[in-house]
Amino acid sequence: MKNVIYPLYGLFLILTTVSCEKNNDDLYDDYLVARPLVMSLEEFKNSVDIIAPVPVEESGKIYAYNDYIFVNDKYKGVHVIDNSNPADPRKISFIKIAGNVDISVKDNYLYADSITDLMVFDISDINNIQIVRRLENVLRDNIMWPLEADIFEYENLNYGTDILVGWELVTERRLISEYESRWGQVDILMAEAMDAGNVGQGGSLARFKIVGDYLYAVDSHNINVFDISDMDNPADLDDVYAGFDIETIFYNGEHLFLGSMRGMYIYDITVPATPEFVSEFQHGTACDPVVVDGDYAYVTLRGGNNCGATESGLFIVDISNISSPELAVSYPMDGPYGLGVKDEKLFVCDGDSGLKVYDKTDIHNLQMLDHFQDVVTFDVIPMQNQLLMVGDDVLYQYQYNQDGISLLSTLAL
């Protein structure tokens, strides 16, 4: 009799446990958890190196210079790619830079951020890159809180001895009640805690921009200005306070266009050492970059999560009167990141919804030329002969056609 009762009892316990777990499942949800990545000060100061190619951990922004493409590995450094044959690009090295997010290049000098330090590299021999200089504490901390995270676990972060060099993001199942009691009301402001020479080209998400003999590097509040006329020894000039939640920088004519979570700020650089505020275009709180072509600025707004309440979309702003920019027209988007323009084509990286290509001849009636739906998109650079796009740890290159673009090559990073 016991041989019958025990199995039945055991089966009852299993079914009861499964039933309880199923019922309790309603109490849990999946959340994106952010944890700080830290190193000691000594490790940080000795963290820069040039090594053989390595797999990417999290692809970030892209930058093009001559026959080379540089892809940021978020907070880790920069992958160097030989693109002399766009149909067959090759990774040739990796520049390790702790806390790196942005770079900019002029006349074979590469400038890169390393948290609060500015690094200078000589890339005249791409196979023998040299570290030229480290300027300490000239930048504001660029390690931003990841806005897409739902939960931040930083209790063990010791600000006295630890250097924050990035964030690790993982999806974990947590009690809904615990999340709502602690993180449900987190405010978005928490995320705050001219002869140009041979200059490369960055995407719309760039925070670095070289104009003539000056390097402009934006942080969440300021324009950091450097005189690079002596290229291997930049001079740190006075910062220019620019507002709140600055995210990106774009240059056109005599103006810098700053994309922020609150709007677009325009600065005059007729006197390049001291950018002067001209005007602003305000929008609802959202993550956004900006590019400019002619009389129009193109701004993508990415709403949702901690980016804000604004719905995602493409805003086209009339800047024909630079002192009074006005919204001309807007179009809905799903979750856009970077964008770019070339001639009459507009390219929008709409996140998981792919790469969208428009004819912008009539801004009030954009015509879609192509839609690459099977790719995850992040940032794009329209070059003279081909289009560069990065997303989901893959570098894509497209060639221009009369009515759109076609895929030329891919490189898994």
What does this structure look like?
Helices cover 8% and strands 48% of the residues. It has 413 residues and is mainly beta. The longest helix has 23 residues. The N terminus is likely disordered. It comes from Lentiprolixibacter aurantiacus.
Shape: globular
Strand order in the sheet with the most strands? 2-6-5-4-3-13
Number of strands: 34
The whole-number mean of residue pLDDT values reads 83
- Strand proportion: over 45%
CA-atom Rg in angstroms: 24 Å
The number of helical elements comes to: 3
Distance between the termini: 64 Å
**Unreliable parts:** 1-14, 185-196
Tell me about the largest β-sheet: 6 strands, antiparallel
Q: Which class do the helix and strand fractions yield? A: mainly beta
Percent helix range: under 10%
Keywords, separated by commas or semicolons:
LVIVD repeat-containing protein, single chain, disordered N terminus, 8% helix, six-stranded antiparallel sheet, five-stranded antiparallel sheet, LVIVD, 3 helices, mainly beta, 413 residues, globular, 34 strands
Helix-strand blueprint:
Layout: H1 2-24, E1 28-40, H2 41-45, E2 49-51, E3 59-65, E4 68-73, E5 77-82, E6 90-96, E7 103-106, E8 109-114, E9 117-122, E10 130-135, E11 151-152, E12 162-175, H3 176-182, E13 201-202, E14 208-211, E15 214-218, E16 222-227, E17 235-236, E18 240-241, E19 246-252, E20 255-260, E21 263-268, E22 276-282, E23 290-293, E24 296-301, E25 313-318, E26 326-332, E27 339-342, E28 345-349, E29 355-359, E30 367-372, E31 379-382, E32 386-391, E33 394-401, E34 404-412
Parallel strand pairs: 1-11
Antiparallel strand pairs: 1-12, 2-6, 3-4, 3-13, 4-5, 5-6, 7-8, 8-9, 9-10, 14-15, 15-16, 16-17, 16-18, 19-20, 20-21, 21-22, 23-24, 24-25, 25-26, 27-28, 28-29, 29-30, 31-32, 32-33, 33-34
